[in-house]
Amino acid sequence: MQIKRFNMKEFLMNYALYLIMLLIVIVIACISPKFISLRVIRDILTQSSTRILVALGCMFIIVSGSADLSGGRVVGLAAVVSGSLAQQATYSNRFWPQFGELPVIVPILASVLVGLLVGVCNGYAVAKLKVPAFLATLGMQMIAYGVNCLYFNKAPNNSQPLGGYKESFGNLGTGAIAGIPILVIIALSICLVVWVVQTRTCLGREIFATGGNPNAARVSGINVFKILMITYMIAGALYGFAGCLEAARTGSATSSYGLSYELDAIASCIVGGCSAGGGIGTVPGVIAGVLIFNVINYGLTFIGLSSYWQFVVKGLIIIIAVAIDVRKYAGKN
Amino acid sequence: METGKYVLEMRHISKSFPGVKALDDVSLTIKAGTVHALMGENGAGKSTLMKCAFGLYQPDEGEISIEGKTVALPNPKAAMVEGVSMIHQELNPILTRNVMENIWVGRVPYKKIAGVHWADDKKMYEDTKNLFADLGIDIDPKESVSRLSVSHCQLLEIVRAVSYGAKVIIMDEPTSSLTESESELLFAIIKKLTAQGVAIIYISHKIEEVLDITDEVTVLRDGQLVGSWPTRELDMDSIVSKMVGREMTNRFPELTHTPGEIFLEVSHLTSANPHSFVDVSFTLRRGEILGVGGLVGAQRTELMESIFGLRPIASGTIYIDGQEVKIKNPRQAIAHKIALLTEERRATGIVPMLSVGENIVLANQTANHARYTGGKGLLNYASRNEDAQRYVDSLSIKTPGLKTQIQYLSGGNQQKALLGRWMLLEPDILIMDEPTRGIDVGAKYEIYCLMEEMVQKGKCVIMISSEMPELMGMSDRVMVMCEGHLSGILTREETSDERIMYLASTYEKGERSNTNANKEI
Description:
By secondary structure, chain A is mostly helical. Chain A has helices at residues 8-31, 38-63, 71-84, 105-128, 133-152, 167-174, 182-200, 202-212, 214-219, 224-250, 261-271, 283-302, 307-330; strands spanning 176-177, 180-181.
C-alpha cells in the first residue's frame, strides 16, 4: 500500500536550510548587488576551506556516535607548531634560531602528527577508559591549549605572533593554480578522499554501524574500540592539517588560533544533516553546512552589518536546523 | 455498569503515514466489562489503531466516541481524562520514586497551608492502599519502584489507569515478558477489572491466551478490518487463518532431518558473573536443533552470549569439531562460524537508521572484507546489493527496497533481515535467542522452515525459547535451565509441557556440590 505524492511539508523540511541560505543570498544581493561576483565566491570558498577540514573531522566523530570538543584548540596548536617550523632562514624573530630552513613537508607532517597524537589520546580516553566523550575531549581541549601556550611562550619567542614564512609554505594558503586557490583545491581533494572512505570502504560503513548502534555493531563482529580509535585519529589528523593551512592562509599564528572552531564545525555538521545521535551524515551535507555559515558570515559583513548580528543569525540557524531535524525523524516513528 | 453497552466506538478510522496507508476504514466497537482481543500480524495496524484511541496519533478520517459521545483525543492526557488508558509493551516507570508517587505523578493530592500546596503523602498513601486492596495487589505503596519486578511495574501502570477512572484499558502484549505465574496474576486482575465494568483491549500474539481470557476477537490484516467475532466461535486454526488470510494447517514445518556426530561440546562452563550460570555441560550434533527452555532468570541468554564471546567466562572449555576453542569476543566467535541472533532486536540487533541492505551485509562485510572489495580496498556495491537482495528474496522480507531504513520495517521483517545477516556468514552453529518473540504467525513459520533448512545442510541450531509449543515442535532435544544450572536435557520422545516446566522450576541441588568437588581436583 504505497502512496507516492508530492508532499509540500516534506519538501520544505528537507530543503529548508538551502531555502534559507538562498533567501539570505537574495536579500544580501538586493542590498549590495556586488555580492554576486567571482571575487566574493572565491573569498568565501577560501575561508571555508580550513573550516571544511575541521568539520569533516567532526563528521567522522559525530557519525561514529561520539563527540569532540578538542578540534579548535588542536587547530591552534597545529598552527603554531607548523608555523614555528616554516620560517625563512633570514627572518629575524625565528622561533627555532638554531635550525636552518626546513623543507615545507616538515611543518605539514608535524601538524598532522600533533593532531594524530591528540586523536590517539581522545580515542583511548573515550573507547578504553570509557570517559564520556564530551568530558574527555573537553579535557584534551584544555590540555592542547595549555601545551600550545607553553610552546608559544618558549624563549626567544615569548608569545610573539609568528611570521616570516617561507614562500612555499605561504603559497599553500594564498597561492592559486589557474585562478583557483590552492587551499580550495586541497579542501576539495580531501573532501573527495573522505567521501570515498566514508561510502566506499568497509571502514566507512563500520563507522556508520558503530554510530548507529554500538551494541549491534559489536555483536556483528565489529571491533568498536578500533573504530573509535581510528575515527578520533582521522579527525585529529584533519584538525592538525587544518591548523597548518590556517597558519599558511593568514601568514601568522598565535596560541589563540582556532578558538571555538570545534563549535562551528559541530554546528556545520548538524546543520548539514548529521544526526547528533550518530549513524547519519554525508560529506556533501557537511560541505553545505560549512558554506551556509560562511556565506552568512561573509555576506553580513559585506553589507556592513555588525559582526555581533552574525552570532544571532548563526544561533538561530542551528536551532531551526535541529528543530526541523527532530521533526523529520520523529514524524516517521 | 451493564455489559453490552458500547464503551468505546471507533468508526471508519483511516490513517496514513508518508508512503504507507497504515489504517484503511477500520471500525472497532468495545463493550463495557469485556476483554476484547485485537489480533493481526506485525504491521497489520494494531498499534496504529490503539495509538489513535490513546490520542498519540490523530486519525485522518473517522470518529471516536466514548459511551456514545463523540470525543476529540488530541493527546494521551485527554484520552486518560475521557477514560482510555494504555499499558505499553515497554514500561517507563520513574525508577527513583516510590510506588505511590508513580501512580499519582502529575496530580499528587495536596493540602493548602499558608497559600502553599503541600503534597499530602498520607492521603496519597491511603488512596493507593485502597486501589491495591480493590484489585488484590500486594505491594507496599512506599516501596521504591527500582526494586519491583517487571510484572509489578505493569500492575502499577494498570492501577494508575484505574486511578484515572479508566473505562477502557489497552494492554499491548502484556505477558510478553512475564512468567507463567505472573501472567496468572495479571489474568486475575483483568477479571476483577471487567467485573467492575472496565473494558480491556488486549493485544497479543499468544493465541492460547486470547482463547482463554477474551470475550471477543477483532482481527486486522494489512491495515484493514478482517472482522470481529465472539471468542467462543473461534479456535486456534481459525484465528491463524484469519490473520494470515490463508489456511494454515501446520504451525511447524515437518522435520525430516537426522542429527549426525557431535560438533559442539561445552564442558563445565561457568560464568565470570557469580550470579549467572554455573557448570553447564552439553553437546550439540551436526544437523540438530537444540531447544533451550527455562523461566526468566534461568541464565539461558547469558550462557549463549558467553559462548558467543559477549560475556566473560570464569572456567570451562568449548570444543568445536573436537578442537578446543577460546572465544573472547564476537569477532572470534564469528571466525569460528558461530552466529548469534540476539534476543533484543532493537538493542543489539538492528542499526535503525541504516538501510535494510546495509543491515544485512553488516556482519559478513566485517568478517569477509574481501568478499565485497575484491581485494582492492574499495567496496563493490553491486556484490553487496546482490547478497542482500538474495536474502530479501529467499526470506521474503517485506520492504519497499534495499535502501529503506530498517527501522520502518515491521518487527517480523526486521527479525528476518537480521537472520539474513547471520545466514550470509554461512555459520556452522546458529544460536537464536527467542527468535520468534513478538513476530506474527506467518513470519514464525518461515523462520522455522529456515531452521529446518539449516539442519538439513548439516549445520547446528540452538534455539532459546519461552514458548512451549515452539520448543516441543521444533527441537530434537530440549535442554532446560533453572537459576543458572542445567537441570536436564530431554529427548524428543521425553519432551512434554510438564517435564519442561518441572525441570525449569527445579534442579538437583546435589549436582552443585559435585561441581564444587570437581573444581577442587
